[in-house]
């Protein structure tokens, strides 16, 4: 058996700040939309569904009080995630990379193995990333796309490589002409920030893995 070093860039959606979910009003430029990204609407109803899924999952956790208390700004955090999903999709598409169903399934199997099983994986995503069980595959797909994008543009696990990936996301963000309902703040392309809300959503992850001796593993 031998060891190999695998470097990847993953998306972190840690929820670090607290504020209440804000409902949409009837006076915004796009009624019923939390944001418009690339001409496509992110409906307030879809955002609220994501928030509800996370809250329900949190309520069944042994750490329910802590999780709920630390994610008061969940509405804005989930909107941030939904915007970032579209930015990553655009940047990946611009670079000519995509994530297949098989890629996502493989990523999930690897993540579950590292976490110690599906139950542990779900708990980890909920606690560390504010992701409900039925949102895990979307999060993993985004991680896969980021990794493929980084590989395609030659972004290594260095500060320079990080800047290269960030530049790709800023370019995609600008191209999407993101317009956010003022109830949630405004989007800053250069800072990748929603109002005063920002998470360290691009983090470098370097993992050493023990590779099986069998070929094709």
What does this entry look like structurally?
The protein is α+β, with helices and mostly antiparallel strands. The chain is built from seven helices and seven strands, in the order βββαααααααββββ. The strands form three sheets. A three-stranded antiparallel beta sheet has the order 3-2-4. A hairpin with a 4-residue loop joins β5 and β6. α3 packs parallel to α6, α3 crosses α7 and α4 crosses α5. The longest helix is centred in the middle third of the chain and has 22 residues. The chain is globular. The termini are close together. 33% of the residues are buried. The N terminus and C terminus are likely disordered.
Helical residue percent band: 40-55%
**Overall geometry:** globular
Distance from N terminus to C terminus (CA atoms, Å) equals 11 Å
The run of helices and strands is: EEEHHHHHHHEEEE
Strand segment count: 7
Average pLDDT level:
81
Structural class: alpha+beta
Q: Output the number of helix runs.
A: 7
Return Rg in Å: 18 Å
Strand content: 15-25%
Low-confidence stretches: 1-27, 200-217
Strand ordering within the main sheet: 3-2-4
Main sheet overview? 3 strands, antiparallel
């Amino acid at each position: 058996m031998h060891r190999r070093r695998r470097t990847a860039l993953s998306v972190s959606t840690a929820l670090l700040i607290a504020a209440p979910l804000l409902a949409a009003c009837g006076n915004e430029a796009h009624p019923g939309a939390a944001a418009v990204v690339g001409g496509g609407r992110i409906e307030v109803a879809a955002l609220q569904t994501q928030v509800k899924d996370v809250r329900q999952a949190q309520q069944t956790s042994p750490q329910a009080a802590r999780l709920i208390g630390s994610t008061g700004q969940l509405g804005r955090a989930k909107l941030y995630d939904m915007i970032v999903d579209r930015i990553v999709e655009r940047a990946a598409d611009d670079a000519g990379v995509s994530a297949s169903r098989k890629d996502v399934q493989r990523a999930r199997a690897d993540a579950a193995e590292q976490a110690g099983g599906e139950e542990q994986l779900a708990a980890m995503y909920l606690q560390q990333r504010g992701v409900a069980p039925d949102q895990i595959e979307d999060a993993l797909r985004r991680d896969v796309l980021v990794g493929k994008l980084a590989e395609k543009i030659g972004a290594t696990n260095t500060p320079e490589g990080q800047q290269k990936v960030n530049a790709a996301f800023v370019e995609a963000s600008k191209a999407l002409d993101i317009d956010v309902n003022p109830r949630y703040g405004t989007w800053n392309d250069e800072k990748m920030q929603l109002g005063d809300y920002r998470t360290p959503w691009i983090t470098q992850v370097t993992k050493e893995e023990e590779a099986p001796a069998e070929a094709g593993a």
